Amino acid sequence: RMGRRVRRGNRPNVVLLSMDSVGARHLGCYGYSRRTSPHIDSLARSGILFENVVSQANWTKPSLASMLTSLYPSVHKTDSKGEAGDRIDVREAQKANVLSDRLRTLAQEFKDGGYVTAGFTNGGYAHSFFGFGRGFDFYDNCAGGAKSCFYRLLRWFLRSQDAPFFAFIHCWDAHYPYLDRAPYNRMFVRRRARVLLDAGTRSEIRRGHRTLTEDETEFLKGLFDGSICYIDQQLGTFVRELERLDLLDNTFLVITADHGEAFMEHGGIEHTECMYDEVLRVPLVMHGPGLRAGQRIAAQVRSLDIMPTLLELWGLVAKAETQGVSLLPWISGERDDHLLVVSETER
Questions:
Q1: CA-CA distances (angstroms) from residue 65 to 69, 78, 331?
Q2: Structure confidence by residue, pLDDT tens digits, 49-102
Q3: Sequence-separated (6 or more) residues with CB below 8 Å from residue 193
Q4: pLDDT of 143-194, one tens digit each?
Q5: Strand, helix or coil at 129?
Q6: What is the secondary structure of 208-234 as a DSSP string?
Q7: In the chain, which ranges are E strands?
């Protein structure tokens, strides 16, 4: 089996990249007409692309918790509980649901398996306050956007031990109100519109007091697509740097997202109020040693299957109880059936 083949050699480094709000339908390798993701597309061509992956929640905190524990939101219970925004202060701390200490994370499993572990994000709902720092030797809540996250990861690795590393990155560059920075704000914007996807606008749309015109929707979508292209460019730079450091052949890359984004396909905007395909279907690309290039897997799978897949790939015996399954039988061609998917939200 493919997993056994990989485990005979030296264990590779593992990088799990989660792109906030980046739905599968906005990437070229998933059939999108705009060239938003040439580097991700290239990694997909030389690795594995899962065509039909569904997130377990429609916003960041419960979705990441499912990804990193392989449990459904109704089990890990890391949902909203009345939070208003992503501030980490006394009032929010008193109200927030956080990841229970009794639940083991993917980072804990890698750490117990002999990996050094590091996480990089700019806080928000990926903040270590919510329990996402558990199992990491180093967790940077202030890493910033994709460029800074990749830079800090490389700097951390070059200063760390010789042991293989597991790194987690969650970057927010494509989250609303979307990156409005040249040249990315001009790549896919045909005509600018006077609209900002701020809290007030989102609230008016949710309450039915406002709709977006086609020009406004296309403008926001253009900014969003440019934001994805920015992340993709930073990923391309990171991959080239791994190659320069002679690390790429021994690094396993996993590229996914916490959820997608709506642009009025079903009358909604952003993601927190919507449970349609545009929000729940996320990318999953794997690239690294032992994989057959150009493989596309059509079966429906889940974000919570990522954790057991990575653990079985590298021969780590999980101490955690998981609800997901390893996808190695699909990768090896032993299975091609669809998995039952549940997505949940308290919002």
A1: 6, 7, 24
A2: 999 999 999 999 999 999 999 999 999 998 866 555 545 554 555 567 889 999
A3: 213, 215, 216, 218, 219, 220
A4: 999 999 999 999 998 887 678 999 999 999 999 988 888 999 999 999 998 8
A5: helix
A6: TS----HHHHHHHHHHHHHHHHHHHHH
A7: 13-19, 48-54, 116-121, 138-140, 165-171, 251-257, 262-263, 269-270, 281-282, 284-287, 295-302
